[in-house]
Amino acid sequence: MLSVQKQFAKYVSQNVLGMVGISLYILADTFFISKAVGTKGITALNLVLPVYSLIFAIGSMIGVGSGIRFAVARSRGLEEADSYFFNALFWGTVIGVAFMLLGLFFPDNIMALLGGDAEIVAVGSTYTRIFMLFSPCFIWNYVCNAFVRNDRAPSIAMAATLFSSLFNIVMDYVLMFPLGLGMAGAALATACSPIVGVLICCIHFFGKNCHVVVKPVKPSAKMLFRSCQVGVSAFVGEISSGVTTAVFNFIILGLAGNVGVAAYGVVANTSLVAVAMFNGISQGSQPLLSEFYGKGNKEKVKKTVWLGLGTAVVFAFAMIALVYVGADAIVAVFNSEGNAGLAAYAGTGLRLYFLGFLFAGINIVGTGVLSAVEAARWAFIASVLRGFVAIIFCAFVLSFLFGMKGVWLAFPAAELLTMVVTVTALRKSV
Prior knowledge:
Blueprint (H helix, E strand, L loop, with lengths): L3 H33 L2 H37 L8 H22 L1 H7 L4 H16 L1 H16 L3 H23 L5 H24 L15 H74 L3 H37 L5 H14 L3 H16 L3 H27 L1 H26 L1
């Protein structure tokens, strides 16, 4: 039997790689769109990111929450463990179809609602329609990956996310440049990538080491609700970027116009890599925590918690140092037009915004811990504070006081406020 440290290193390293892979294809979209379409394309992509985040968040909540319930029930020998997978797929499909229909009939309205003017709507509506048509696939990918990970197959889960991301990056280039499809090509590449992830996960489901039961059961809204209770931290881990983006887009449009939004697009998309790393630590720790908690091994639970938080802090310091030194170079990659306004806004934004990850890492990992040990009430409070209340309050107050610098500082301030609650909850629950 591997030690806690070795199990942690195995699960977390592979999950971090997988989650970073997911974020990299969004960065690839940003890079290729900046080359093919320019600032208007980046602005359109950034305006639609909240929709991305919402779909991903729902998929993550259903997948991770159901995976936690499955892992705990299985470790206790409960028969209900066999029902969670199909139930998650069923409700994920229902919700995915709803998003699909919205994207099919109302892409222009969605873009306009998110702040796009007529020019930006014209650039981004096709992109929105195409990727939303594949909404069920995004949710299925999250569900399948979560169950593979909770069934002690982190290597396959990592392979699924990495290869789907690689597929997206390659197809981004092929569809946008040799085939000249522009924004539509970027959307098609992104939309098809989760299908690759699901197919790779099927290697485990049809393998001899699979303990996930793939059979139809009567759908249960109650089971879905119980799963979502412990999946709420995963939901917020994904949606917080979208909420932050939507609020910031609204404020920045008033302060700096479309160029400011494009600059924030560079900051937001770069930050997704950081968020992915912390989500990787959180979700990589979760199967171990759920198993140790289900068996009543408090010592191993605490050891895993400290490993997770410590790793998050180390990652945070490394990323802050890297961004502080390399901010201008990062911005230049996405500024193909050499826009001076974009360069100035984004360079300052990266350096100030990334300070928040020292606190965000603790919050993301901490809320994941709370969910894994079934402290659903504390996980919900910390998650809602982080993803909605604190960031919205800080964004409006600090932008009013300090303009664009206040916008960038809102994220660190909100994460610091949330960390106080998260640490309190961990002391009471673990």
